[in-house]
Design brief:
binds fe (ii) ion, about 75% helix, mainly alpha, globular, Ferritin
Length: about 240
């Protein structure tokens, strides 16, 4: 069955043909970003001062070489006879690095140096290093859900039109990433017990709570309460995985 990049076909399998669609989609997106970057003048992009501390943490979260993920993707690709999967993961990592790069540009344009360490980011990285492919993709799915809720809020909360455009552009990628990982995880989980799903959901809830505690000053621009934020993030995960 053909992959539906933004679609809702719940039975799409992550076969080799489907993965090839993703590699093409990522390549096309690289070209779109080249165009987008030419249209933004980062030297005049203004970040609202009250958003900066939170943006610094998310910028750090976008920085990763993805060594563990690449190794897990290589063995997944071999196991499923799907060499394009490794390429797609490499392209995905480049997209996240692109977000990190342009967010750093935006911070520096506002005389703010990006940070190199932060406790919740460190914790998230540790969890990712501990796991196998399924857990890694589960953790990434949660990260994508949070990113969607966060960047859509930043786009709303930013007063500068260029900053708004940057966050909306990143948001588009995060929505695509959610579909990409969701499609592959759905296929892999089809034959497994529901205990893994429950554990993932529990982890997801925990991360939602931690992110709210740390970034609620920003998130309240879009979500009037923790309950609203929680419901949105939980629903995003459920619709991606069912
Ligand atoms: Fe990202
Ligand atoms: Fe992402």
């Amino acid at each position: 069955m053909t992959a539906t990049i933004h679609g809702t076909d719940q039975h799409s399998g992550a076969n080799a043909n489907d993965t090839k669609h993703w590699t093409r989609a990522f390549s096309q997106n690289t070209k779109r970003w080249q165009q987008f970057a030419q249209e933004i003048d980062f030297s005049t992009l203004r970040l609202d001062a009250h958003l900066v501390d939170s943006i610094k943490v998310f910028q750090l979260g976008e920085c990763s070489e993805g060594r563990t993920l690449k190794a897990l993707a290589a063995s997944y690709a071999q196991r499923h006879d799907n060499p394009d999967y490794l390429l797609a993961i490499q392209q995905f990592i480049k997209e996240e690095q692109r977000h990190a790069y342009y967010m750093a540009e935006a911070l520096r344009a506002n005389d703010v140096e990006p940070i190199a360490k932060q406790w919740s980011d460190g914790l998230f990285r540790k969890v990712r290093q501990l796991c196998g492919w399924e857990m890694m993709i589960s953790v990434l799915l949660t990260a994508e859900v949070i990113a969607i809720a966060y960047y859509s809020t930043l786009a709303k909360a930013s007063s500068d039109p260029q900053a708004k455009r940057l966050f909306e552009r990143i948001l588009q990628d995060e929505a695509t990433h959610l579909q990409f990982h969701g499609e592959h995880l759905r296929c892999d989980r089809a034959s497994k017990t529901s205990i893994r799903r429950r554990l993932h959901r529990l982890f997801h809830w925990l991360v939602i709570a931690l992110v709210w505690v740390e970034h609620r000053q920003v998130l309240t621009y879009q979500f009037s309460s923790f309950s609203q934020f929680f419901k949105r993030c939980d629903a995003l995960l459920l619709t991606t995985l069912t």
